[in-house]
């Protein structure tokens, strides 16, 4: 996340939010780099104490109505913060690969209008498999993954309940 901090001179501050914020993380100010650890947080979630390069540093953050910081007080010294340039405001941990099911099911009760594939046919992710008419709207059925159509459980004209199996991909 990038912040521009204004004081008598402008500083570029980058916070490495890829790391777990319950441990040490890096903060770069201009060309310098600091090891930071959150030590104390108030009941409302605002910061109270940081360890910056193994030194205790009281901190207070003044926020706008939308929650973004406008002023940071480090050891009582105020620094205005301009969030005019920000790469990301969210910490997104890397998720492990998960198995994607090859089952295509009716997401709403409806009627199969058409199927565009046959058993044994090779398909790719996002390929149109058919159309389900649900609540007077045609919903395109898309392949959730690459593979081969293993079985087809529904036929055009068939009425399905929500969750009924339409076809399987292996």
Automatic annotation (TrEMBL):
Q: InterPro entries recorded for this chain?
A: Biotin_BS (IPR001882), Biotin_Carboxyl_Carrier/Decarb (IPR050709), Biotin_lipoyl (IPR000089), Single_hybrid_motif (IPR011053)
| Keyword Phosphoprotein set for record | no
A Pfam family annotated for this chain is Biotin_lipoyl
**SUPFAM superfamilies, per database record:** Single hybrid motif (SSF51230)
Q: What organism is this sequence from?
A: Oceanipulchritudo coccoides
Q: Where is the Lipoyl-binding domain?
A: 95-170
Record key words, sorted:
Biotin
Q: What is the protein name stated in its UniProt record?
A: Lipoyl-binding domain-containing protein
């Amino acid at each position: 996340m990038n912040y521009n901090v204004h004081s008598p001179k402008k500083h570029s501050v980058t916070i490495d939010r890829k790391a777990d914020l319950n441990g040490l993380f890096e903060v770069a100010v201009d060309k310098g780099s600091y090891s930071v650890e959150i030590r104390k947080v108030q009941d409302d979630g605002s910061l109270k104490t940081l360890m910056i390069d193994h030194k205790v540093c009281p901190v207070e953050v003044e926020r706008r109505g939308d929650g973004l910081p406008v002023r940071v007080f480090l050891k009582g010294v105020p620094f205005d913060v301009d969030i005019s340039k920000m790469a990301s405001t969210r910490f997104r941990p890397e998720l492990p690969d998960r198995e994607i099911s090859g089952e295509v099911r009716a997401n709403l009760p409806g009627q199969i209008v058409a199927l565009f594939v046959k058993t044994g046919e090779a398909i790719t992710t996002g390929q149109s498999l058919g159309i389900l008419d649900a609540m007077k709207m045609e919903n395109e059925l898309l392949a959730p993954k690459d593979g081969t159509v293993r079985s087809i459980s529904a036929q055009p004209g068939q009425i399905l309940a929500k969750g009924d199996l339409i076809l399987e991909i292996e």
